[in-house]
Amino acid sequence: MTSMEIKTGSAPSSRSGGDDSGALLDVRDLHVEFHTRDGVVKAVNGVNYNVSSGETLAVLGESGSGKSVTAQAIMGIVDMPPGKIPQGEILFRGQDMLKMSNEERRKIRGSKIAMIFQDALSSLNPVLSVGYQLGEMFRVHEGMSRKQAKAKAVELMERVKIPAAKDRVNDFPHQFSGGMRQRIMIAMALALEPDLIIADEPTTALDVTVQAQVMDLLAELQQEYNMGLILITHDLGVVADVADKIAVMYAGRIVETAPVHELYKRPAHPYTRGLLDSIPRLDQKGQELYAIKGLPPNLLHVPSGCPFNPRCPKAQDICRTEVPPLVPVTEQDGTDLPGRGSACHFWEETIHG
Amino acid sequence: MGRYVIRRLLQMIPVFIGSTFLIFFMVYALGDPVAALFGDKAPDPATAARIRHDLYLDQPLWKQYLHYMGQIFQGDFGTAFNGQKVTELLAAAYPVTLRLTLVAIVIELIVGVTLGVVSGLRRGRAVDSSVLILTLIVISVPTFVTGYVLQFLFGVKWDVIRPTVSPDAPFGELILPGIVLALVSLAYVTRLTRTSIAENVRADYVRTAVAKGLPRRRVITRHLLRNSLIPVITFIGTDIGSLMGGAIVTEKIFNIHGVGYQIYQGILRNNAPTVVGFVTILVIVFLLANLLVDLLYAVLDPRIRYA
């Protein structure tokens, strides 16, 4: 195994696994593929990452980079078939969820690991009241009565700062504004105070001011409940504010990992550099905005070697033949940079050059 | 909602007038009812003239229509040729047809929706394909074929049921006719449910329901089915309307004295009062069934609101 772990958590030998010892979630060498009529789509190709309690991991990447599929594999909501997980481990508190029975996994979903989806309008059931949909969490997982569940739903809606929660609990999703709907999604994920929340582009469908509110709320609640958070996004601005560490994905692989501020200061992968360069900046007003040339690869035919090589300004012959492993990134003098890794043959030149 | 219902009820008036006039016109244009009354014998001209006068048949058509409408609203649907009041015929025929409709709809709903859900969830697999082929066969075979074949097999060959239904038409005897009547609609309900389920199963809110850790059963019944049944309910609603109109073929095969049977007899004998009376009631039933479907829409889907 040439790839390295992002952060080598202490071996999860003890089953109880206290909140502070070891990672809450540890994804190891995860592969996900989809068998379609056109061939096998390799959506995730050996992803490693981990999250501890209270920590925020941002997973960054373009559409089709496999970030959402990874999240769905963690939740256990990948459609199988056509989906398939040929290898890998997803350890939650030291236990491999891929080896669990369907019923065991179902009990974890929603109560221990919850997910916030991107488009709250389509992700909420249009014909059921939000109170019903929130209350369902308590009724199914905790066996509460309809009435108790509704009271809990009101409480939750107040928790995510929805005004006049009591009057609105029987309203339907289409009667809420976009920001309020996303709050309801958050409330639903939060209902049973899970250990880990996966937020799949939670603010993409919202306008900028509401985006900030929703992100602040999410960060605040995460602090309060000391939850682990996986934030999937393609918005570098959002990441900078809330994330502790970043994993950049490309074509189903992690190409770079780093603590959040280090990544912005010194990217160690040409793809990350390209992403950062394509952020509009005030001091470069009027100049043409940089864009990474080309398109993300077709996952049916991932280019040989480094999947980024056709778009990389630094590509050499080796990039077209050999897949670069995720290697630890160090200072020029060899001192460790904890948590940093890059899957580029020329990471040294990229970070130091 | 109240305003909407009132508006719809008011809209029914012109539809009702227009359709009943058309029926009235067509039935009376078809032939001379007085001649039909006497059957094969030629009537005495004086007697015929008297009957014409008594029945308002010497008046222009529009006057006849107005007179007829006036009588209807006083509860008088006229008298059939055999001297029976049409209202009595209606009272005897409708409960029978209602029972038959009920049996057919229950079968459609239970079997059709179940098959639809099963095949929709297993789209493209063996179960799905066999259900599709089966429904295709059922749709292609006309009712009179399935009717006679099933009647022969169950009623005559295996002697499981009585081949024809007795005049009271209890529920037990209506099961086989109900199945025959339901078959074609059942195939449509199955296909409609299947398509709807297969489409909605990929919906985001179903994924959310799974991610909430709900048991599969609950995901399907509470989240998936509730959304998928909306088009099916529409179909069932209009189907109730047409089934209440009497299944002429089925009722004829099993000798059920329901609405279809009466209309069939009425048309056969050019018995104008019966035909017009029954069809007038049918128009009302159809209009109400359609209104009911539209209202049911709003109940099933809260996004639809009628102002």
Automatic annotation (TrEMBL), chain A:
Belongs to the ABC transporter superfamily. NCBIfam families: oligo_HPY. GO terms for biological process: peptide transport. This is ABC transporter ATP-binding protein. It comes from the Bacteria. One of its GO terms (cellular component) is plasma membrane. GO terms for molecular function: ATP binding; ATP hydrolysis activity. It is a peripheral membrane protein. SUPFAM superfamilies: P-loop containing nucleoside triphosphate hydrolases (SSF52540). Its main location: membrane. It holds the Pfam family oligo_HPY. It is found in: Cell membrane. Residues 1-16 have a biased composition (Polar residues). Residues 1-22 are annotated as: Disordered. Keywords: ATP-binding, Cell inner membrane, Cell membrane, Membrane, Nucleotide-binding, Translocase, Transport. SMART domains: AAA. The keyword Transport applies. The lineage of its organism: Bacteria, Bacillati, Actinomycetota, Actinomycetes, Kitasatosporales.
From TrEMBL, chain B:
The keyword Phosphoprotein does not apply. It comes from the Bacteria. InterPro entries: BPD_transp_1_N, MetI-like, MetI-like_sf. The keyword Nucleotide-binding does not apply. Residues 94-297 form the ABC transmembrane type-1 domain. The chain crosses the membrane at residues 12-31, 98-119, 131-154, 174-192, 224-249, 275-300. GO terms for cellular component: plasma membrane. This is ABC transporter permease.
